[in-house]
Structures are given as structure tokens and as C-alpha cells.
Specification:
The protein is an alpha+beta fold. Helices cover 31% and strands 26% of the residues. It folds into three domains: 109 residues; 299 residues, Rossmann fold (3-Layer(aba) Sandwich), CATH 3.40.50.410; 76 residues, no CATH class. The two termini are 73 Å apart.
Length: 539
């Protein structure tokens, strides 16, 4: 081809469309491919982040007081894997690593993966590297926690296969609960308060009532007791049959004669002030003697009715309404002793044969009084532990009584509302919780003096003087519903006993646990602490 022909070809524009079109297709493929793979990368990045968040949340939730170990790390990995589909995302070389700080307050995670490209591999980009970081922390808002604790006699029994008692296991779980919540609160301005209602045959709320208003307690009351009648001469004849005829001797001695009956003239007005009083109900050296009494603080409940069933309605409240003991919020009426509480006077309480209004024979009534209840208050670890360590086990099981007073001390519209509604410094809302822990079924007593007197004689719950567990259970169920209606979350732990239908129904949704040993009891308290502490993702 001549030089002229080459120059002509160079100037010619015919035939340029095809190479330009090919170049345009290549550019278009790059743009489309980049857009498709960028969109996929964005989606996979979000899934990676969500899986990372799920993993650290699961790892933090699995943590106990023993810290972040292999079991917790495995739980985190399981949740990460469940939330990140390797095959569906065409992901390779995926890693998820977690760790916890020294205090165990938060779990940190790093997730990485390589997404295989769908189109950009045509241009030498085979994978897109993606990473995500995540942190799960325990932080707590304002919370009030009322612990309603079964401290009946069975709590002093040893756990099966363990060297500690059930009460000791409870004390350890309580302390770990405090530590978990305290760790969540650290570094924040949140307010967390604790209150306590240990219960058995009664509750020790006398000091709280007296400090609130002395008129809440009666000045006169009838108790099943005894009165001295006279010194009586008892003659005894003994004979020696070894002689013939037998030689008999007669001896006489003076013994006190008692009349066992209801007594209404004991000095309750002084006794309720926690001052020592004396009554002629004691016997020493065969003679009537002064009995010194000082009130420990346990109470007899205000008036109730011996109904077979009880219920709660948001409209009408507790039915029957005459069961004043089940009314959580109603304050006493100064002119009506039925609305007030009475000091439980153990030193003067006696029982006698069933169905006998007065008798010449009788015996001392059994008695139990748990640790003094506490209103809501902020507590140091030392204060909390001191209270827990002082719990003791005695008495029969009255679940209804525990719930009544747990609700009373936590109700924002009741007689202790000034304490309950004390505004936190940060001004934020307050969540309210009752933790109800028991190791056994309802077990009222007919012959001991309890919050309902000596049922054998007083007959406040039944008309025949028997101890009816079903009636007490019905009362408990009604109070549980009234409590939840106030926005209080009720947690129930059945420890070394069955989680009955009644206990489960008492709890708020998803708020009941069964614990057969100390490890499971601690885990239940930890699960509750994590809910109170509000696990959350930190950004």
C-alpha cells in the first residue's frame, strides 16, 4: 500500500463504530458490575454487623459471676453463625472474635469476611473485604427491686448433694445479683434501690408501720391466751406395796390454776411502741410469774373474710372487698380497728383443745418471726451483704402474705408511696420489680400464732379452724394480679420445688424460673439482673 493510501485510511471514519462500541460495552459492564457488587457488599456488611451484634449480646447474656470464658465465647459464636449465612452471601474466610474487659461489664467483637464478587472478578477484583465491630454492654436505668423471700424452716435444710443449705445458696445468689446490677450501673447516674420482705408465718413490718404512723397499729386487741385463776391444792397419795398392809403417805402442793381463753386486756398501746411490758402469763417454780415481753415487729393482719375464693378486677379491685388484708393501698381508718394491724404477741399466745372457748388445759403456741423488712433504698455492697447474711429460716409458708407486703412496699399509690415515688436525681422514669423466691408449697398452720392469729381458734381464713392451703393460694393469685396491674414486673423463682401453675400464673409473662440447685438459682437471679440491667448494643 502506497503512502497516499495509508494517509487516506488514517483520515477515513468508516469502520470506527465497532471498536468504540466494544469499548463502551466494557465500560458499561464495569459500571453495572461495580453497582451490583457494591449493592451486594452493602447488604452483606449489614448482615455481618447484625450477626456481630447478636453474637456479643448472646455472649454477654451468657456471662455469670465467673466471667467470660469458653462457654460464653461458644455461645457468642453460635449466635453469630446462626445470623450470618456463609453460602447465601458467597462469603469466605469469615472470622468472629470476641473478648470481655476485666470487669466483665461488656463484650467486644470483631467480625470479618470476604465476599466473592459476581461481576467485578472480570476486572481482577475477586473478593470484597468487609469488617464489623460490635460491643454489648450492661447498662441500667432507674430501677426499684423488692425481694420477697421465702425464709421458712425448710430453707434451713441442706441442698441435696451439697454442703450448703438452701438459705446459704440464696444468700450467695442475692450477692451475685447485686454485683451484676452494680456493674451495669457503674459510671452512670442511674438510681437502683433495693427493698426486702422476708416472709414465713408472718412478716416483720412493725417498725415500718410504727414509723409511718403509730395509729396504724391497734391499742386494743384480743389474743388467744390464758389468765391466772388461783393457786390450787393438789393432793397426791403414794403407797408402798412391799409392806402388809401397804403403807400410804399423802402429800399436798400448791399449783397455779389457769383458764385458757381469748384475752382482750393486754397493754397493746405500750407493747406496740417496742417498750418492754409485763403480763401475769408465765409460770416459774410452780407459781404464776411476770412475763417480760418486747415486740420483735411481726404483725397480725387486719380484718379479712373466710371466703373460699378471691379474685381481682381492674374495675372492682379485690373481691370480696371485705378482705381488707388484701387491699394493697388502703390506709387504716383511725376509728376502725378492723383496718389496722396488731403486733404479734408471741409470749402470751396459747392454744387449747379444738372448739373449746375456755379450757383448764392448754399449751404454748408455736411462733416464727423473720428478719425485719426494708423499704426501698440505695445500698452499698457491704450494706446489702450484711442484710442478706442476717436472714434466718423458721416458720410455715404463707405465699399470700409475702406477696401482700411486697406489693405494699412497692406500690406507688399505697401507704409507703412517699418512699416509692421519691424522685431520682436524673429525673428519668423508674422500672419496678418484685423477685418472689420460694422453696416450697403453701403450708399454713392451724395451731401456731401467725399473721392470721391461731386459726384453730380465731378462724379468720376458714370457719372451721383448719389450715386451708387452697384458700391462701387463691388469695395469693388475687394479689399477684393486683400487683401486676400497677405496672410492677413480678419474677418468680421456684427453688428446689416445682413451679406450680399458681406460681407460674403469679409471674409476669416470661418471668418465671425453676432452680433445682445453687447453680441454677444463681443463674435465675443473673437472668433477672440482666433484664433489670437492660443488655444493649453500644455504638
Amino acid at each position: 500500500m502506497t503512502g497516499f493510501e495509508w494517509r487516506a485510511l488514517a483520515r477515513s471514519t468508516s469502520g470506527n463504530v465497532l471498536p468504540m462500541a466494544c469499548l463502551g460495552v466494557i465500560v458499561l459492564c464495569g459500571l453495572v458490575g461495580g453497582g451490583v457488587d457494591a449493592s451486594r457488599a452493602y447488604m452483606v456488611k449489614n448482615r455481618l454487623q447484625n450477626a456481630c451484634d447478636s453474637g456479643v449480646l448472646a455472649g454477654r447474656r451468657a456471662m455469670t459471676d465467673s466471667g467470660y470464658g469458653e462457654a460464653e465465647r461458644k455461645q457468642a459464636n453460635t449466635y453469630f453463625a446462626a445470623n450470618f449465612d456463609l453460602d447465601g452471601h458467597n462469603a469466605v474466610n469469615t472470622r468472629f472474635v470476641t473478648k470481655a474487659d476485666d470487669k466483665g461489664n461488656q463484650v467486644e467483637g470483631t467480625a470479618s469476611t470476604e465476599m466473592q464478587t459476581a461481576l467485578m472478578n472480570l476486572f481482577g477484583f475477586d473478593v470484597v473485604k468487609l469488617t464489623a465491630t460490635c460491643t454489648a454492654s450492661m447498662s441500667v436505668g432507674n430501677s426499684d427491686v423488692m425481694m420477697v423471700l421465702d425464709t421458712t424452716g425448710s430453707m434451713g435444710n441442706a441442698l441435696e448433694g451439697a454442703s450448703q443449705t438452701k438459705l446459704q445458696a440464696l444468700q450467695a445468689a442475692m450477692k451475685n445479683f447485686y454485683n451484676t446490677v452494680a456493674a451495669a450501673k457503674a459510671g452512670s447516674n442511674a438510681r437502683v434501690r433495693f427493698g426486702f420482705v422476708p416472709y414465713s408465718s408472718s412478716v416483720n413490718v412493725g417498725r415500718l408501720l410504727y414509723d409511718r404512723d403509730p395509729s396504724f397499729l391497734v391499742d386494743q386487741y384480743t389474743v388467744q391466751s390464758r389468765v391466772f385463776v388461783e393457786m390450787k391444792t393438789v393432793t397426791t397419795e403414794t403407797c408402798d406395796d412391799a409392806t402388809d398392809p401397804p403403807i400410804c403417805t399423802t402429800t399436798s402442793r400448791e399449783v397455779p390454776s389457769w383458764l385458757y381463753q381469748p384475752v382482750a386486756n393486754f397493754p397493746y398501746a405500750t407493747y406496740k411502741t417496742f417498750k418492754s411490758v409485763y403480763t401475769k402469763t408465765h409460770e416459774a417454780s410452780g407459781k404464776p410469774a411476770d412475763q417480760k415481753s418486747t415486740w420483735q415487729g411481726c404483725i397480725e393482719e387486719r380484718a379479712t373474710v373466710p371466703a373460699a375464693t378471691f379474685s381481682y378486677s381492674p374495675v372492682s379491685g379485690i373481691t370480696p372487698a371485705e378482705a381488707l388484708d388484701l387491699n394493697i393501698d388502703m390506709p387504716p381508718n383511725s376509728y376502725d380497728d378492723r383496718t389496722k394491724w396488731a403486733p404479734m404477741w408471741r409470749e402470751v399466745a396459747f392454744t387449747r383443745p379444738t372448739g373449746v372457748e375456755t379450757s383448764n388445759t392448754g399449751s404454748k403456741a408455736g411462733y416464727a418471726c423473720p428478719r425485719e423488712a426494708r423499704l426501698l433504698a440505695e445500698m452499698t455492697a457491704s450494706e446489702f451483704n450484711t442484710y442478706a447474711n442476717a436472714l434466718s429460716a423458721s416458720g410455715n409458708t404463707y405465699h399470700d402474705l409475702g406477696m401482700i407486703w411486697g406489693a405494699r412496699l412497692l406500690s406507688p399509690t399505697g401507704i409507703f408511696s412517699a418512699n416509692v415515688n421519691l424522685r431520682p436525681a436524673n429525673g428519668a422514669a423508674v422500672s419496678r420489680h418484685i423477685i418472689f423466691m420460694t422453696d416450697g408449697k403453701m403450708e399454713p398452720s392451724a395451731t401456731n400464732i401467725t399473721a392470721y392469729g391461731i386459726e384453730k381458734h380465731d378462724r379468720r381464713v376458714t370457719t372451721n379452724g383448719t389450715a386451708d392451703a387452697k384458700r391462701h393460694t387463691s388469695r395469693m393469685r388475687a394479689v399477684c394480679e393486683a400487683t401486676k396491674a400497677k405496672g410492677i414486673r413480678v419474677w418468680v423463682i421456684a427453688f428446689s420445688t416445682a413451679l406450680t401453675t399458681d406460681l407460674s400464673a403469679c409471674a409476669s409473662p416470661d418471668s418465671s424460673f425453676t432452680a433445682n440447685n445453687s447453680t441454677q438459682l444463681n443463674a435465675a437471679f443473673q437472668d433477672i439482673a440482666k433484664e433489670v440491667g437492660e443488655l444493649r448494643i453500644v455504638r
